[in-house]
């Protein structure tokens, strides 16, 4: 089980590449993994039946007692079969659903397979904390799947709605899980259930856990997200909303019910909300005209049914509930896939646009009838077995005076009537020949026959409902171990005289007549509603849950706008001034309240400080009085360069190197921004309150100076930094203390800084790319030559741009930079192009040297990345945005993502080996020719830093440079046309 779980999270990484290589046929490869997991679960059937429960564990976080443990009991076995079996069939179905499509299919296939893995882990893990983690992973992945059509506003809104509802429910559930863990002292789910704790704390924890379960399974009042999620592709609806994601909450209820069903808050919540959801969903399904939404609200109704039955908590109900769980996964997945076939072939799901499809697609119609018959509970399907078992269980308890049994029974009867009615509505809407208002037959909808492979999955799932019904005796035997974990009857009620069991035929019992009655009444409700045109406009409630959700979101947005209007005034001086006022007030209060100040001052540490400090002070004073923005920026940079000298003379070459690189890149960024800002300060808006600004600036300077004096003199113990050289060498296996600290000893700090850099790059790009953030550098370089063969001689400049030399053009000027000709003549410098051409590759080599030498010598990923970034700056300055595109064809966002992924992997991978996050490994070996080699895995973290820094610089150049250039060029072109 553990190897399969690992494969579920590794194989998806290969799928985008496979989709590029094989197209939609890559789904065949993706299906192999769930098929393997299904076979493994099937082979474990005998062990599960005899109670020899398969159990695997790996100690993950020993300090917290958290283990990656997998336990396949009867409930886990059944859910594993559903998740992997239906998942494999959906993968096969996707091969035909996405035939001829490539856009986004690679990512979709990877996310869908990863989701299957998350569900596989969720239903089999025995660690309740790990269950919560899988729970939230499914929420995130479902967000990506539902939002597959990300260009559509409806898809984005539906994905966000599902994410918010299920994630918030999951966070509430996490609190309940923490309470249970604290109360029982264990994170093992089986151990918690074995201990069966009671008390007020446990009751509160159960309510919180139920919030998570009900929100995941779309139970009222959280039901509204599921119909909205029908904006997803049909395979997603068939898998997530019929067999996988929504089953997560049902699974949790089924897992807890045998132990906690008789706790005070359980039945009032589970039965009341389950019954109401069943009725609400069934009622709404009869009003819909979109086949997919008919099934969506039908799913909501069926989830309410499952919640009532599996949450009831007696043996007979538990046994029937598992049969119902299997039944629902089969028939509902099949029906969703049928809708996908119809939609793919006809480009519509609207009942009003379909007529006469059944006669043209007899196979599809036949197996749809079988699936609906299973949903309504018609013999010999597994739906009939489950429905009769449910009615018998609830009727037995009702006759003995069970109040909640009576509520559940009446709700199930009413819900079953609605189920039969909307099942018939689905068949009529999809396949029947319709008549117009005058009673004449409507024109037939022409049906193009789909590929046979496209029909395979829905046909197999529908046929399995009959197979499972016939195999009821075997199914009863394999499900009995789960049923026996529940009490025989509710407290105070007598146990049934006979042992509960599933059978295809129990005889002419009351449950059978009730079941037949619900089907007959369902036919009547369907006929009544089909003839009543006004029914579609009727409402069960004066408002919908979606209305409440939208109103809540609008209220939050208005509150955010109101708060922002008070605090974000659009004035940078106000923001900075607020920060400075708070700083002076807070630190000044701390300084003044201190009982004593200790100061250990020296006039200077090195004579160099006497020369550098006055220059820095003078530059600062001149910057305050500068009237031109660029002058002020340069003067401020002088203070930074002064810090470079101070670092270099204080034994900190790493800091000096980094500081000078940061100052250079910052100066370039300022220069790019200042192109679009008036050169002189106060040209449009004069500075206000100069005296107040001066006072505040003086207060900040004095406060900072006092803080530095007091803080550096307050130490009474030996500083830990004295031990850092030893720690850096023994733990990080490096002699450069600064670099080892960044990537090893204080790696978490660096991880946070990388996140800040990525957010900064994203923020800068978002301000410039108003409508999109696509990679436009490739558009800039599209006109540049793409040579099909290697040309050893230099390119030459022609009227068409840089080209390989020919006998006619060999005397043309040599091309030094590909984008040089795109630069306006008055801005072009051949000397600069030559220098950049000569130095660029050497600078990149230097950056790589700094990256890999930084563990023992001055350098590291940050410094190396800045040097590589400066090389890109040179290319941009010399050749403009076209040259930048030629120098860095990779998208900046991918570099940022790759770097962060490497850094995160260095934090996560050690956990799988029982080590703390960011623990580095030291590898030492001798290689032929090369000789003795030493490698520390923290270097990989440094490579991530290197990529993030390059991505940041490239994003700044791409947005503040290339995109601003493009916008300026468009403005000049428009002015030229207008003039």
Can you walk through the features of this model?
The N and C termini lie far apart (72 Å). This protein has 37 helices and six strands. The model has no long low-confidence stretch (mean pLDDT 86). It has a two-stranded antiparallel ribbon. It has a two-stranded antiparallel sheet with strand order 3-4. A two-stranded antiparallel sheet has the order 5-6. Helix 2 (15-22) packs across helix 6, helix 16 packs antiparallel against helix 21 and helix 35 runs parallel beside helix 37. The chain is mainly alpha-helical and 979 residues long. A hairpin with a 2-residue loop joins strand 3 (796-798) and strand 4.
In short:
This protein is mainly α and 979 residues long. 67% of the residues lie in helices and 3% in strands.
Low-confidence stretches: none
Count of separate DSSP helical elements? 37
Q: Assembly type of the shown chains?
A: single chain
**Share of β-strand residues:** under 5%
Strand order across the biggest sheet?
1-2
Mean pLDDT: 86
Q: Identify the overall geometry.
A: globular
Radius of gyration: 34 Å
Total beta strand runs = 6
């Amino acid at each position: 089980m553990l190897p399969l779980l690992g494969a579920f999270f590794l194989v998806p990484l290969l799928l985008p590449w496979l989709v590029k290589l094989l197209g939609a046929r890559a789904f065949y490869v993706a299906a192999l993994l769930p098929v393997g997991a299904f076979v493994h679960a099937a082979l474990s059937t005998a062990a599960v039946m005899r109670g020899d429960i398969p159990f695997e564990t790996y100690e993950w976080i020993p300090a917290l007692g958290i283990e990656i443990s997998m336990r396949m009991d009867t409930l886990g076995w059944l859910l594993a079969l559903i998740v992997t079996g239906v998942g494999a069939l959906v993968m096969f179905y996707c091969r035909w659903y996405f035939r001829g499509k490539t856009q986004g299919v690679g990512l979709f296939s990877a996310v869908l397979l990863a989701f299957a893995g998350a569900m596989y882990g969720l239903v089999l893990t025995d660690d309740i904390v790990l269950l919560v983690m899988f729970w939230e992973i499914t929420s995130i992945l479902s967000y990506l799947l539902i939002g597959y059509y990300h260009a559509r506003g409806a898809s984005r809104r539906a994905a966000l709605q599902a994410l918010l509802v299920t994630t918030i429910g999951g966070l509430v559930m996490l609190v309940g899980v923490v309470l249970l863990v604290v109360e029982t002292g264990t994170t093992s789910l089986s151990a918690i259930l074995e201990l069966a704790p009671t008390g007020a704390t446990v009751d509160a924890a159960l309510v919180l856990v139920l919030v998570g379960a009900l929100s995941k399974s779309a139970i009222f009042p959280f039901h509204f997200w599921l119909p909205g999620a029908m904006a997803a592709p049909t395979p997603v609806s068939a898998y997530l909303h019929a067999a996988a994601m929504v089953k997560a909450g049902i699974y949790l209820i089924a897992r807890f019910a045998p132990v906690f069903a008789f706790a005070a808050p359980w039945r009032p919540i589970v039965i009341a909300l389950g019954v109401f959801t069943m009725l609400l969903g069934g009622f709404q399904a009869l009003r819909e005209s979109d086949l997919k939404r008919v099934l969506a609200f039908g799913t909501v109704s069926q989830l309410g049914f499952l919640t009532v039955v599996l949450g009831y908590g007696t043996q007979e109900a538990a046994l029937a509930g598992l049969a119902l769980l299997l039944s629902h996964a089969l028939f509902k997945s099949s029906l969703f896939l049928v809708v996908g076939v119809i939609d793919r072939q006809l480009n519509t799901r609207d009942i009003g646009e379909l007529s006469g499809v059944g006669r043209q697609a007899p196979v599809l119609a036949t197996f749809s009838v079988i699936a609906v018959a299973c949903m309504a509970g018609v013999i010999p399907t597994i739906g009939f077995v489950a429905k009769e078992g449910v009615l018998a269980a609830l009727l037995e308890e009702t006759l003995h005076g069970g109040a909640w049994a009576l509520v559940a029974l009446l709700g199930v009867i009413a819900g079953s009537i609605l189920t039969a009615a909307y099942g018939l509505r689905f068949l009529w809407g999809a396949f029947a020949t319709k008549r117009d208002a005058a009673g004449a037959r409507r024109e037939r909808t022409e049906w193009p026959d789909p590929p046979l492979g496209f029909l395979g999955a829905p046909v197999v799932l529908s046929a399995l409902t009959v197979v499972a019904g016939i195999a009821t005796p075997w199914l009863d035997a394999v499900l009995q171990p789960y049923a026996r974990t529940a009490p025989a009857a509710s407290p105070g009620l007598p146990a049934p005289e006979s042992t509960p069991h599933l059978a295809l035929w129990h005889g002419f019992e009351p449950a059978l007549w009730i079941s037949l009655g619900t089907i007959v009444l369902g036919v009547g409700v369907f006929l009544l509603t089909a003839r009543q045109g006004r029914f579609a406009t009727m409402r069960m409630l004066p408002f919908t849950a979606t209305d409440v959700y939208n109103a809540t979101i609008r209220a939050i947005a208005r509150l955010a706008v109101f708060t922002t209007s008070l605090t974000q005034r659009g004035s940078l001086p106000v923001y900075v001034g607020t920060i400075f006022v708070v700083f002076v007030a807070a630190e000044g209060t701390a300084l003044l309240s201190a009982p004593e100040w200790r100061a250990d001052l020296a006039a200077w540490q090195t004579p160099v400080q006497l020369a550098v400090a006055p220059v820095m002070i003078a530059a600062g004073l001149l910057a305050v009085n500068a009237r031109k923005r660029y002058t002020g920026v340069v003067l401020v940079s002088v203070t930074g360069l002064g810090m470079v000298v101070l670092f270099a003379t204080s034994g900190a070459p790493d800091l000096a190197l980094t500081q000078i690189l940061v100052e250079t890149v910052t100066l370039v960024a300022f220069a790019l921004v200042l192109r679009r800002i008036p050169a002189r300060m106060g040209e449009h808006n004069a500075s206000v309150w100069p005296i107040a600004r001066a006072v505040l600036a003086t207060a900040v300077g004095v406060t900072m100076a006092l803080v530095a004096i007091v803080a550096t003199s307050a130490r009474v113990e030996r500083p830990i930094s004295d031990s850092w050289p030893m720690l850096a060498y023994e733990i990080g296996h490096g002699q450069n203390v600064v670099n080892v600290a960044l990537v090893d000893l204080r790696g978490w700090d660096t991880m946070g800084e990388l996140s800040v850099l990525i957010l900064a790059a994203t923020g800068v790009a978002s301000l410039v790319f108003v409508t999109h953030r696509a990679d436009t550098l490739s558009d800039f370089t599209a006109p540049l030559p793409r040579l099909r063969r290697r040309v050893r001689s230099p390119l030459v400049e022609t009227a068409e741009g840089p080209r390989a030399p020919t006998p006619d053009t060999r005397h043309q000027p040599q091309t030094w930079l590909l984008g040089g000709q795109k630069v306006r003549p008055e801005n072009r410098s051949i000397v600069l192009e030559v220098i950049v051409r000569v130095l660029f590759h050497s600078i990149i080599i230097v950056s790589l040297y700094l990256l890999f030498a930084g563990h023992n010598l001055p350098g590291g990923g940050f410094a190396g990345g800045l040097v590589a970034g400066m090389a890109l700056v040179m290319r941009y300055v010399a050749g403009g945005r076209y040259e930048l595109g030629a120098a860095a064809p990779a998208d900046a966002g991918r570099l940022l993502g790759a770097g962060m992924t490497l850094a995160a992997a260095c934090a996560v991978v050690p956990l799988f080996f029982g080590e703390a996050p960011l623990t580095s490994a030291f590898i030492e070996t001798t290689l032929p020719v090369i000789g003795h080699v030493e490698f520390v895995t923290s270097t990989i973290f440094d490579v991530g830093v290197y990529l993030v820094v390059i991505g940041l610089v490239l994003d700044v150049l791409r947005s503040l440079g290339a995109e601003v250039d493009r916008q300026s060029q468009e403005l000049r072109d428009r002015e030229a046309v207008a003039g």
